[in-house]
Amino acid sequence: MFQRILIANRGEIALRVLRACRRLGISPVVAYSEADRDTRAVQLADEAICIGPAEARRSYLSAASVISAALVTGCDAIHPGYGFLSEDDAFAETTRAHGLTFIGPPPNVLERFASKAGTRALLAAHGLPTVPGSQGMLRDDDHALAEAERIGYPVLLKPSAGGGGRGMRMVRTARELQQAITICRSEARAAFGDDSLYLEKWLEENHHVEVQVVVDRFGNGIHVGERDCSVQRRHQKVVEESPSLALDDGRRAALLETAIRSVVAAGYESVGTLEFLVDGNGDYYFIEINCRIQVEHPVTEMRSGIDLVAEQIRIAAGEPLSIRQEDVRLDGHAIELRINAEDAAHDFRPQAGLVERYLAPGGPGVRMDSHLFAGYEVPPYYDSLLGKLIVWGPDRPAAIERARAALDELVVDGLVTNIPFHRALLRSEPFLAGSFTTNLLDRVGAAAFLAAENG
Ligand code: ADP
Description:
The protein is of the alpha+beta class. 35% of the residues lie in helices and 25% in strands. It folds into three domains: 4-103, Rossmann fold, CATH 3.40.50; 132-201, 2-Layer Sandwich (Dna Ligase, domain 1); 207-454, ATP-grasp fold, B domain (D-amino Acid Aminotransferase, Chain A, domain 1). The strands form six sheets. It has an eight-stranded antiparallel beta sheet, sandwiched between helices. The chain has a five-stranded parallel beta sheet with strand order 3-2-1-4-5. Strand 2, helix 2 (40-44) and strand 3 (47-50) form a beta-alpha-beta unit. The model has no long low-confidence stretch (mean pLDDT 96). The structure holds adenosine-5'-diphosphate.
């Protein structure tokens, strides 16, 4: 097992990894940017090391800075958290070249799953149904037009290196397509340094359902159930829950079984998530894999009692899986609310500023993963996640009850957050009935939810 891990991330996930280190008896070292000097993770670490200025490109995204920090502080492994360098195969390779372990899939596995278009083809070959779409990357406009014609409009243009819901574009006609390709390519180049695109059929009404998998290097793999992440704004998740209401027991079993079988066959290793769209018939289609720990992993931890980050660290250290599929027990219902510094009434505009008061909720079945404290200054440089409120109940209504009570206890004063939005959502008819799909917020608008709550 590792002696000392460098945590190359910030915010709540830096704390989460730090806790896993403590649990495993590993010494945590935190790498921080100048903007994150006064943070909980830095305070709680055995050692902390500054890796550069606020700008992520020169700190959290700088492979050279992160690796030097690990070497200087005597670490034997690097945990990248999520985002930043977490799925970067070149970084994982450089880490290894310096005698350090990257906590995540090995570099060659990351490389195999790096392109979304390539992964679609790979997993389809191993038996996963995928959303109808282009065969590989789009070569040029003519190829795109021919593929869109074959798939049938509307189609969705997607960057193959994409993530975080960015850069996708829905296209209804051949005339729109050419222009959309130009815009999409330049956005993808700017955001991901890679302008390759592919096409998928646009599925209007769908649920986003994902499967948590854990696979060791000996090819033992388990799934830990599914999460439903259909409450989204601009293709980004705001609420996640498990189990999903979009699946009956038969389809759920088929999805979980197919997902784990195909990903093991394709040679995956580490914790990971396979994402699917589920249509009104309960039919599921693979969209992408996330080769890292995800923001919403606590939903699964609440139902299974498995510490996914500890499991991820053990696997990277070469240990075999400690749990067999038949030992995985998924109980009750869990819901996660992402608490963001953003103004739901104004198109979810991100906010920054001083947290004047912070009071976390508690009690049975309530977990708050957050790096906030009173006096903490939310910097404007990074994503808007302030924390995650996760609740568990024996069934969905009980979980919703707990979520409401916990939200009433939660206080974040000093800046605008999406807490009022969550309050409204948890009282809204579509959420209570479970009759919502991924386009709910973009269609109805968050403002409508807020207005209903205020009225
Ligand atoms: P990213 O990697 O940027 O997060 P994903 O491929 O995971 O992108 O898709 C994010 C979200 O976009 C999905 O959860 C869903 O809401 C929407 N989406 C993706 N593909 C489709 C599709 N083919 N049709 C309709 N909506 C889609």
